[in-house]
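It is time I had a proper look at our fold encoding. Can you supply me with one protein entry, sequence and fold together? It will help me judge whether the discrete encoding reads sensibly. Leave the record below and I will have a look:
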Amino acid sequence: MCASGPSRRAVLSATAAAAAVTAVPVFPAVATAAGSAGPSYRWRQVVIGGTGFVTGVLFHPSVRGLAYARTDIGGAYRWDDRRARWIPLNDDLGWDDWNLLGVEAMAVDPAHPDRVYLALGTYTQPWAGNGAVLRSEDRGATWARTDLFVKLGGNEDGRGTGERLLVDPRDSDTLWLGTRHDGLLRSTDRGATWAAVTGFPGTPTTSGQGVTLLVAAGRVLYAGWGDSDGTTANLYRTSDGTTWEAVPAQPSGRNARVPIRAAYDCHARELYVSYADAPGPNGQSDGSVHKLAVASGKWTDVTPAKPAGSDTFGYGGVAVDARRPGTVVVSTNNRWAAVDTLYRTTDGGRTWTSLKETAVLDVSETPFLTFGADAPKFGWWIQAVAVDPYDSKHIVHGTGATLYGTRDLKHWAPQIRGLEETAVRQLISPPTGQAHLLSGLGDVGVMYHERLTASPSRGMASNPVFGSATGLAQAAGKPSYVVRTGFGDHGNGAFSNDGGRTWAPFPAQPAPAKDAPGPIATNRDGSVLLWTLVHWDGTKYPAQRSTDNGATWSEVATCPKGATPLADPVDPARFYAYDTDTGTLFASTDSGLTFTARAAGLPSGDSQFQLTAAPGRSGDLWLSTKTNGLYRSTDGGATFTRLTSCRAAHTLAFGKAAPGADHPAIYMVGATETITGVYRSDDGAKTWVRINDDRHQWGWIGATIAADPRLYGRVYIATNGRGIQYGEPA
């Protein structure tokens, strides 16, 4: 392996450093917040395994077994080689910092193995917060934070490019950060403060990709520029940290429009760059791979396979083998027809071998990866590729759902333990049966969790297979009966008579359900289904009702369009629906045939409302609101009383009562004063205690929660990128 060399701060003179940055804007360092917890809780994650887009993997070049991974909505992770699992590094980011769980880029310092840096920010839209840089001196165990005055886009197009963050190999105190819309930034104090770089040739736009990658080739820094039209420069370099120039004779044309990733073979002194006609991960149809002999300036086209005809794709990841000169691995991306692959060369790109054809995939640890098919795919959305610098046959590549790894170039299995990125939408904790948890998820449908410590053995629910789940409901008096809805290719609704283990599709479905499946409810005995249809773009359709298990459906014109239906847990003739547009509670006493308005004047105009029914009590309704806290009705929605014990409530669940208590335990994501967290009340919401702590916050957790009706104290938390977390009294 090439030696990284010592850190030499004196390489850049004070004059050159001053010329490389402007005086403003400068972004000051901000200390991380501290806080306290309530009763002692132990928090763990329900094991599913991945389920999200791994956008980058980075092996440390000088420490065996040390690696980092980044995701688009679930934060970053460090690999624990001894335990063979990933350690989450950003669970301490709280409700107000949800936008920072998208990781735009990461960097390590080859000369200081304990240092790691993250550039965080999920979206660049005006409604999203600014990005931030986290810096650690202990491999991510603790962080210092600097808030930026620019936005980063860890979950936008181009999120698999990179890395956009780089420690200058000539000076460990100097960091470079490429942004999408604000050019190139630089820090000379290890990320504590940042300033914009002057003289960088790329002209930022409000909608482009900006700097897509930063890489060092010896002492020369290279920056990829994602806003080229195919004829203008897309790769720049600097040898002194001050003057940037377009790399001469660089590739051009449609198949080299966007530099995706780059890797430097320090033995052969060759820089490999992957290109595509779009930033990806979607939308690529052409691409190429080129290498630059940095000493002579000669470029060579080493593209393994040219996209042609219906076989369209771009190129994504590129990684060099630190132990073997001329050995490189690259990935195709967005190759849906032939399925994406990794190509490997041992002769500097003269010949390539596709690793997909000989791959033996073992997904027994995460069975959902078959997605209802006979066999899993080798990969898709492959833009993260890494070769272990201490083991040439240890290669990992990220996909849209997992991270595959091999130790022999033939046998591949998910290397995903500890990494959970699911966006969770529905949770049920059944009162009986083998499973203590059913979940409705984004992208991977519905799962039956017979164990919390292993990925569901049946994978995601099939017959039909859903992409994203939109509804999940259980008959309160007949828990063996469960229904689900979601986006599927062969039906959008299904039922189960064995508590969610096996499923059958509804015999029929309303026409709008194909593109607007929406949420669903079933009454106490499972004799009536009420399905409200909402398109992903917000278009609302009339609710539909079935009394024959989905064989026929009829419109319910009096139910407010788009309202999430709720069944009374005791009376099978009662349903409820909350109209968030007008702040009115509607109720039905004829099994969902008709609805009439009851309480009015409740909070309105915000989608973050949730209506919940207390178990075992007819008409005991609880309304969670973001800005006004909790409201309760004990008369089936005729009247509501605002509770003063909390300031804000986002989602609510009922669990087994505390010993000696006469009311179910109540769990809430909300705020009693200033801190939005997870709270429990054992006295009917008169008082609350916070049960999560500052190390366990998981960003935005407002979708739903569930509490176990069989185990006092256990609560399940739906996160938007960190899977399902569950807590129990320690």
Notes: The CA atoms of residues 411 and 485 lie 36 Å apart. The helical segments are 14-19.
